[in-house]
Design goal:
Phosphorylase Kinase, domain 1, alpha+beta, about 325 residues, binds magnesium ion, 2 domains, binds adenosine-5'-diphosphate, D-amino Acid Aminotransferase, Chain A, domain 1, five-stranded antiparallel sheet, single chain
């Protein structure tokens, strides 16, 4: 098993490239984006030392499927997936916020709540909630989209509007889309015996139109629980069976790393890497309802380069 942790292509029409934490994003003629989902893995906003074989393919294929399954709700950036690890789509001007929507109290929100916090992103939370408890209604807890190397930070709707990060009219649309997408994602998940616990959306604008951009409903941007046994485990105060990156965060925390300055990332043994890859495959199969078919990785870089170049030439 070999992981793809970096790419350095030169596609026809290429203007620039942005190496994100996970994706390598190629700007084609200031018009299209070629987004290569690599096997890099990030947690607490840092990229871990080892790649996870097939993670990029899984992420790209999950996102691609759900972009298609939500295209009736709002326009999205996807045009095609010319390679299992690549999506090509419309380049948009991203809004500088991430729309996080939560149906349940967990993850960082639970960690804050447990420490006594009762207001998250301006939203008051009642006393007496337990970990993984369902909110009466999903809540939106946005973050700023921080510059490279900085942590995203919680922000309230009021502050987003006050700072003019997003206009009032645009924000109302982002909220509406976020709730509708989350509802659709939850319905699809329910059909597969899963609960979509929380997720993150990014939006952008192009020619005056607001588009959904980036990945959606992937294990990197979302958290899922198994429906079966949720109630029982909740009553017993037991941890939920979850399909998300949270197990990576938990492994890191158990080994003394919480993304804070001065802490070192624990060593990732081949066993850890393999178990993370297996967890991702498990999620892929659950959430898509399809078997995961590994792409041919013998000439991975040239495969990606050829598939993508051919697409760009054919669709010039
Ligand atoms: N259609 C799009 N137009 C412009 N930017 C996009 C689009 N889709 C995704 N992006 C951006 O591409 C990047 C994807 O790479 P990622 O690895 O997630 O990077 P990051 O470390 O910035 O989160 C993100 O910064 C995301 O905002
Ligand atoms: Mg990202």
């Amino acid at each position: 098993m070999k992981a793809l942790v970096g790419t350095d292509f030169n596609f026809p029409g290429q203007q620039s490239v942005y190496h994100g934490k996970v994706r390598d994003v190629y700007n084609i003629n200031n018009n299209l984006l070629v987004m290569v989902a690599t096997d890099r893995i990030s947690a607490f906003d840092v990229v871990l030392s080892e790649g996870i074989p097939y993670k990029g393919q899984m992420l790209n294929q999950i996102a691609s499927k759900f972009l298609d399954a939500t295209a009736d709700i709002c326009p999205n950036w996807k045009l095609a997936t010319p390679d299992p690890m690549v999506t090509v789509g419309l380049r948009c001007e991203g809004f500088p916020v991430e729309m996080i929507v939560r149906g349940y109290l967990c993850g960082s929100a639970w960690r804050a709540y447990k420490s006594g916090v009762r207001r998250i992103c301006g939203i008051p939370l009642p006393d007496g909630m337990n970990e993984n408890q369902r909110f009466p209604e999903p809540i939106i807890t946005p973050t700023t989209k921080a510059a490279q190397g900085r942590h995203d930070e919680d922000i309230s709707k009021e502050e987003i509007l006050r700072q003019g990060l997003v206009s009032e009219a645009d924000y109302a649309l982002l909220e509406k889309y976020t709730m509708q997408l989350f509802l659709r994602g939850s319905e699809i998940a329910a059909g597969r015996g899963l609960i979509l616990v929380d997720t993150k959306y990014e939006f952008g604008r192009r020619d005056g139109v607001v588009y959904l951009i980036d990945e959606i409903h992937t294990p990197d941007s979302s958290r899922y629980f198994y429906t079966e046994g949720y109630d029982e485990r909740f009553r017993q105060g037991e941890p939920q069976r979850q399909l998300s990156k949270e197990f990576v965060r938990e492994w890191l925390m158990a080994n003394g790393f919480q993304g804070q300055a001065g802490q070192t990332i624990p060593e990732m043994t081949p066993g850890i890497v393999e178990s993370i890859s297996e967890r991702y495959a498990e999620l892929f199969e659950h959430i898509t309802g399809e078997p995961f078919i590994k792409g041919d990785t013998t000439h991975l870089l040239s495969r990606i380069e050829e598939n993508t170049t051919q697409y760009l030439i054919r669709n010039k």
